Amino acid sequence: MPRAVPRARAVARCPRQAQDSGESDDTLEPRVVASDLRRDTSNMSFEELLELQSHVGTKTYKQLVAGNSSKKPNSRPSVQSACVSDKHRPLEMSAKVRVPFLRQVVPISKKVARDPRFDDLSGEYNPEVFDKTYQFLNDIRAKEKELVKKQLKKHHSGEKHEKLQQLLQRMEQQEKAEQERKRQQELRLTLKQERRAQAQQGHRPYFLKKSEQRQLTLAEKFKELKRSKKLESFLSRKRRRNAGKDRRHLPLSKE
Amino acid sequence: AHSLAPRRTEEEEEEELEETAQEKKLRLAKLYLEQLRQQEEEKAEARAFEEDQVAGRLKEDVLEQRGRLQKSVAKEIQAPAPADIRVLRGHQLSITCLVITPDDSAIFSAAKDCTIIKWSVESGRKLHVIPRAKKGTEGQPPGHSSHILCMAISSDGKYLASGDRSKLILIWEAQSCRHLYTFTGHRDAVSGLAFRRGTHQLYSTSHDRSVKVWNVAENSYVETLFGHQDAVAALDALSRECCVTAGGRDGTVRVWKIPEESQLVFYGHQGSIDCIHLINEEHMVSGADDGSVALWGLSKKRPLALQREAHGLRGEPGLEQPFWVSSVAALLNTDLVATGSHSSCVRLWQCGEGFRRLDHLCDIPLVGFINSLKFSSAGDFLVAGVGQEHRLGRWWRIKEARNSVCIIPLPRAPEPAAAGS
C-alpha cells in the first residue's frame, strides 16, 4: 500500500477553494490514500486536473500520476557518521518539514528545585558547626516561646487554649532535648580531653566500656534527681514498671 | 647474387639500371609516403587543436560548476571619477530593486511608487514604464499595487519576474514588457526572486518563511520548501539546481538543495541578515544590519571571512551604531565584491586567497540608501539603485539623496580583460 505522499485536497470535493493558496493546506485535509486519489483523478475533468496540479505542485502531481512510490518520502538525507571534520560542516536538514509558527527566541532555562537536606552541596551534618552557625535560632525560639505564653494568657479555655498549651509543651520539650544533647556533647568532650591529657602524660588512653558509660549516666541522673527532689517519684514509677515487666517472667499459673 | 666476372659489366649495368629503376621506384614510393605522412600530420594537428579547444572549454565549464573558476580582477579595478557616474532619474520614490539584462543593454528598476522602468544603458533613456495598478478594481492594465520588493530576469533575457508586498509574483516578457502570468501562492510579501541560469525555473521566497519553486515556461507551481524560522529577506541562485536564502532575524543563511529536498544551515551573523549574493557555485557573500559582511563557503557552517562595521559607525559619539548593509553584489567567478549602505559611499572589496579574507579596495561616493547593487555580466560597470529611504521601511530619510539609478563605470588598468561567463 503506497503511502499517501501527496497531501492533496481532492479538488472534486472542494473546487471553491481553488484560488486560495498554491500550496496544499494539509493541516485541515485528511490524508487521502494514493489509490483513492488516482481513482478520483480518473474521474476529474481536465480543468480540475490542472487545478489540482497548480495546488499541489507539478512535482507531487507527477508522482501521483505516475502512481509509483519510487521516490519515497523517506528519502531524507541520511544521518552522517559523526567524525571530527563534520563538526565544521553546515547542518543538513530536510526541507519539507513545516516549521511551527511559534519559535523560541530567548533560551528559557528550567528552574531546578534543590532540597538542601538531600543535596550534596550542603555537605555532611556536623553538630558543632551546626550549633555555632545557627546560634541565632535560640533567640528566635525564646522570643516565640514568650509570644506563645502571652497568647496563653489571653485564651484561658477552649480549643485555642489547648492548642497553645500543646504548642508550649512541645517547645519546652524541644528545649529540654536540646539541652540534654548539649550536655551529652560536653560530657563526651571532657572525656576526650581527659584522654588526650592522659595520653600526653604518657599513659595509654582508656576507653570506657558500654556498661561503665551506663553506670556513669545513671549516677549523674541520680544526682540530678536528688537535687531537684524528684527522686522518690522517679524511683516509684520505675519500680512499678519493672514489676509489670517482671510479672511476664513468672510461671503461668495453671489450674 | 654476384655473377661471374665476364658477365659482370653487363649484369652490373643491368643491375645498375635495374637498381636505378628500383631505386627510382623506391624513391618515388618514399616520396609518396612522405607526402601521405605530412598530410596525416596536418590532419592530426588540426584535430588536436580542435580537441584542445573543446577540452579547454569543457574544463572551464567543469571548474565553473565546481566553483573554482576564478579570475582575480579586483586588483585591476580603479576608483572611477565621480563625474563618470551616470545618474538616471525618473522614479518618484525610492528605488527598491533592479536587474540588468544579460546582454548588458538594459536595466529594469522598481521603486516604492510601484512602477517598473526599463532603461537603456547606452543612451540612459527610458525604454518602457510599467505604471502602478490601482488596488481593488479589475479590468486594469496589469501592474503592482504595492511596493515591489524583488525582481529577477532569466539568463536568456526572456522573462522578467517581480514580487511585491501583496503576495503576487508577476511575470513579464522582458523585451516588450508585456504581462504574461501572475503567480499567487505566497502568504505574505514576496521578498526574493531568482531564475536558475540557463533554465526558466524561478525560485521565490517570502515573509511567510517558505521557498517556492515555479516553472515560468509552463506557468506552473512546482513545490515549496520549509525551514526558515522568520521572514526571509533575500534569495539568489546560479546554474545549479539550488538556491541560497538570507534568513533575516532568523540569523541563518540556508542553501536549498532542491532535487534532494534538503537544506544546509549556516550561522555567523549577529544582526538580521538582509542581503546575499552568490560569487560562484560554492561561495557567497552576505550583509547584515549590524554592519557586518561575511564570505561563506559551502563546506563550513561559519563564515570564512567576516568584516564587522563594513561601512563604519553612525550617530553621536558615545551612541554609535554601525551602518546597516542594505545591499551586496559580487562579480560572477571573480574576487570583486561591492557593498552598499547609507554611509554615502559604495565600497568595493577584494576577496583574499580562498575567500578567507575581505580587503577594502576603494570607495565610490554616492549619497543615499543604496538599496540595490548589480554588476554587469562583463564586469564593465556597476549599477546602484539609490533612494532617500531604506527599501523596506522609513526609518530615516536622506533629503540630499536623489531617487535614481546610477551607472558606475569600473575602469581597469590595462590587462587582458576578463571575459564574462
Automatic annotation (TrEMBL), chain A:
Native species: Tupaia chinensis (Chinese tree shrew)
Stated name of the protein: rRNA biogenesis protein RRP36
Subunit structure: Associates with 90S and pre-40S pre-ribosomal particles.
Keyword terms, alphabetized: Nucleus, Ribonucleoprotein, Ribosome biogenesis, rRNA processing
Regions of compositional bias (Basic and acidic residues) in chain numbering: 172-197
Low complexity composition-biased segments: 1-19
Stretches the record annotates as Disordered: 1-33, 66-87, 171-212, 230-255
Transmembrane segments: none
TrEMBL record, chain B:
Protein keywords: Acetylation, Isopeptide bond, Methylation, Nucleus, Phosphoprotein, Repeat, Ribonucleoprotein, RNA-binding, rRNA processing, Ubl conjugation, WD repeat
SMART domains the UniProt entry points to: WD40
BP terms from Gene Ontology: rRNA processing
Pfam families registered for this protein in UniProt: WD40
Gene Ontology MF, one: U3 snoRNA binding
SUPFAM superfamilies: WD40 repeat-like
Gene Ontology cellular component annotations, sorted alphabetically: small-subunit processome
PANTHER family reported for this sequence: U3 SMALL NUCLEOLAR RNA INTERACTING PROTEIN 2, U3 SMALL NUCLEOLAR RNA-INTERACTING PROTEIN 2
Family: Belongs to the WD repeat RRP9 family.
Record protein name field: U3 small nucleolar RNA-interacting protein 2
Organism: Tupaia chinensis (Chinese tree shrew)
